[in-house]
Design a protein that fits this description.
globular, 8 strands, 230 residues, alpha/beta, two-stranded antiparallel sheet, 6-stranded parallel sheet, 9 helices, TIM Barrel
Length: 230
């Protein structure tokens, strides 16, 4: 059982992490939901806020602490390493912020929740593949896993676990069993003995073309596009 704490500043609420531990939690996740909108806040200050928060919570508990990370850092590998260095046992990639919308009839701003799609998993896939073997923390993928193929891609990139939510909302709780069965079928067909054997075999450190996770390949992507022009 892993409860999730939502916040972005050290304070009294972080004491709840200890209460979760005392209640029997196996770990705790820090969902740092913070958007830097103040022009006076520098990137260094924002990073320090994350580091101080994780260090504070980690010092309060003996159970593992996972951090749900925003994708908006300019030096993701660096901040990931520093978070692990102050106590993060796991990194959850990435926090998916709810974006606002404008209601034209009401002339109001309102939150607008849109479920993820499989196309969104590539952001987590890229950074999990890059960080695998470089950061001393478990790596969890969240956002975009809907099919067994999605799960397999993330595991091959190096994810230690794959989180699903939107796919269960669309297909119901029984969809989890469908995903597991199809993952097992794919593994059996290719004679993988375990997930551990497969995990990370196509990370940046292990794949035949490590640079593929870094360069943009705009021309190759454009040339390979086969959609119909209008």
């Amino acid at each position: 059982m892993i409860p999730s704490l939502n916040g972005y500043t050290p304070g009294g609420w972080t004491q709840i992490a200890r209460q979760f531990e005392q209640a029997g939690a196996d770990a705790v996740e820090l969902n740092i939901y913070f958007l830097a909108t103040n022009p006076q806040d520098t990137g260094t200050e924002i990073e320090k806020r994350y580091i101080d928060l994780v260090a504070s919570v980690s010092s309060m508990v003996s159970i593992p602490v996972a951090v749900k990370v925003s994708p908006y850092f300019s030096a993701m590998a660096n901040i990931a390493t520093r978070l692990a260095g102050v106590g993060a046992s796991g990194l959850v990639l990435f926090n998916r912020f709810v974006q606002p919308d404008i209601l034209l009839d009401e002339l109001e701003v309102a939150p607008h929740l849109v479920l993820s799609t499989s196309d969104e998993l590539r952001l987590a896939l890229r950074w999990i593949a890059i960080l695998r073997g470089r950061v001393q923390a478990s790596l969890a993928a969240t956002g975009g896993a809907h099919t067994a193929e999605d799960v397999l891609k993330l595991l091959l990139a190096g994810a230690d676990c794959v989180m699903i939510a939107s796919s269960l909302l669309r297909n119901g709780p029984k969809h989890a069993a469908v995903l597991i069965n199809n993952v097992e079928k794919w593994m059996n067909e290719r004679e993988y003995a375990s997930v551990e054997q497969m995990k990370g075999s196509l990370s940046q450190q292990s794949c035949p073309d490590p640079a593929a996770f870094e360069r943009s390949n705009y021309m190759k992507a454009l040339i390979s596009y086969t959609g119909e022009l209008r």
